[in-house]
Amino acid sequence: MGKGVNRTKASTKAIAKEVSSEQENKEPPGPKPLPVLGNILQLDLKRPYLTLWEMSKKYGSVFTVYFGPKKVVVLAGYQTVKQALVNNAEEFGNRDISPIFSEFSKGHGILFSNGENWREMRRFSLATLRDFGMGKRRSEEKIIEEARYLREVLDDLHGKPFDTSQPLNYATSNVISAIVYGSRFQYSDPQFKEMVNRTNENIKISGSPSAQIYNMFPWLGCWLKDLKLLMTNRVYNLKQIEDLVASLEETLNLEETRGLVDTFLIRKKNAEKAGDKETLFNEQNLLMTVSNLFAAGTDTTSTTLRWCLLLMAKYPQIQDGVQEEIDRVIGHRQAVMEDRKNLPYTDAVIHETQRLANIVPMSLPHTTTCDVEFQGFFIKKGTCVFPLLASVLKDETQWESPLTFNPAHFLDEQGQFIKRDAFMPFSAGRRVCLGESLARMELFLFFTSLLQHFRFTPPPGVSEDQLDLTPAVGFTLNPSPHKLCAVSRASHTYA
Fold this sequence. Notes:
Blueprint: H1 2-24, H2 48-59, E1 62-67, E2 70-75, H3 78-87, E3 94-95, H4 99-105, H5 115-131, H6 137-155, H7 165-180, H8 190-205, H9 209-216, H10 225-250, H11 260-273, H12 283-314, H13 316-329, H14 344-357, E4 366-367, E5 372-374, E6 377-379, E7 384-387, H15 389-393, H16 436-453, E8 454-457, E9 485-488
Parallel strand pairs: 2-7
Antiparallel strand pairs: 1-2, 3-4, 4-7, 5-6, 8-9
GO molecular function: heme binding; iron ion binding; oxidoreductase activity, acting on paired donors, with incorporation or reduction of molecular oxygen, reduced flavin or flavoprotein as one donor, and incorporation of one atom of oxygen
Main location: endoplasmic reticulum
Organism: Hemibagrus wyckioides
């Protein structure tokens, strides 16, 4: 009898082991990949997020797709993305560093690093940005000052059609420059213009089909013209940052820091004095951290503002509502952050623009830090994960009219502003955008300042219906090239 019981126990263990093994091998479903090419022929490389969104309707909210030979697990929909990035923040918390960004960062900086380097640089940057007023009155004053310079540029156009990209890029770049370097640049400064333009060009190229092909098949790099331009731009930009840092180092005052660079240099010098050869406060981390902050802090905010102005010109009745509220609540004085709670419609329009514009549709890729059991599937440690933010910001279960511009998404029946859980333009969890509070402040202050002073319209001969809302191709989704007119609201005189 004892032998029979032992045999039964052994058999049960074997079955349990088999079941466990089956669960372990139950990977998320997905389209069948071809050898080497993977699912590349099924992907629209100009707008991969749209293909992945369509695939999620067939394969579910957790599925596998192959970008060439590289396996990627895609997470779709609010509940799934939240469960991964927030509820399982540690397990899904590493950054996947594709070849193109690995070439750039070499493990330094914040955006494309992991482990202790990422933790130290993020902690330092967040603390220092806060010290220099991120989300507080000090940065509010910098943004208000920059809004005044921006208005002067638009005033000088006298209502003539203009491309919105450069002035808005320069304005948001200057906010970051003031915090990082301690001073702003003149919009006419050729070095500043070149640095901003090269940064934006690189962001555009890094989301192009050729960049994605390079990420899948790095050995093709020598044939990709865009990639050579990307690398050339990077070399020039790093040289400019080096020169700016060297100039700040020459005039460094240990008692009075001007910006983030000064604070980093002091930490670097202290580590050198202490003989700490392992310090992460080294030149490579300084250059890459500044580069990361400059790129991320410029493009995303200016892109969102461009969408704001385009949507105002496209939907003049919504622009009417914003301007009526601004006139009634603020009148002729300068808007401040304290006004936001009394401008619910304006706030709702900004949030709805961020939702609909969906400017980082696939977030930045993550990787799993360990083997993960997730929604009944097994995901191996080190697997690349795409949190599909497009599917969160346009989730049909979360938004009443997900594909239309509808500020009512953020308003209750009394017209008061309401927060929405599925509003995730800055991502979520460990890798949430560290400049979120600064970006929110910039969006509110720049938008209210511009709408207070100008009426945005299509160029003469172009109707509202002809304004195209199709995004351009790029790592972030900019509006397609277009021009608008900023017509002065002459009946208003402001201090």
